[in-house]
Amino acid sequence: MSLDVPTAVLEAAERREMDDAQFLAVVRDSLPYAWEVVSAAAADRTGEKPFGEHEVPPPSEKERGQLLRALASTSIRGALERHFGVVLAFQNCHRVAAFAPAAVDSEIYREFISPRGQILNQSPELRDC
Q: Pfam families in the record, alphabetically (predicted)?
């Protein structure tokens, strides 16, 4: 199971009364490593820099799983993007970039998400990630 959902949040969802804040609290509490990585990438986007990133491999498979679940889920990823005001991009098993929404139409964004960018970001130590 990806998320630990408190009864009150489950009941709010059943009544169609759940909001983003409740959902984000569940994500933050259930996937703390993923929350930390996305938060760090978003915070790294400062000044004129078009994107911030986090490139540190997860300390264990547990944390890697959290990151993969967060970024593979459309609803979780979308909530994180709305909360942090970024567009997330993901390479390998740990390289997360947080782009300013205005940068999505930029050459640097297109390069980051391109097949070429993916190939250039490979190394033997990342083969099994």
A: KH_NucS_shadow (PF20704)
Please list, residue by residue across 35-55, b when 16 or more beta carbons sit within 10 angstroms of its beta carbon and e when fewer do: bebbbebbebbeeeebbbbbe
Q: 30, 118, 45, 122: which is closest to 88 by C-alpha?
A: 45
- Return d(Cα 83, Cα 116) in angstroms, integer: 30
Q: Which residue has the tokens 């909360």?
A: 83
Residue type, 80: L
**What number of other Cβ atoms are within 10 A of residue 25's Cβ?**
12
pLDDT-derived band at 4 (thresholds 50, 70, 90) equals very high
| Rounded distance between C-alpha atoms, residue 104 and residue 59, angstroms | 30
User: Per residue in 73-126, pLDDT tens?
Assistant: 999 999 999 999 999 998 876 789 999 998 888 898 999 888 887 787 776 655
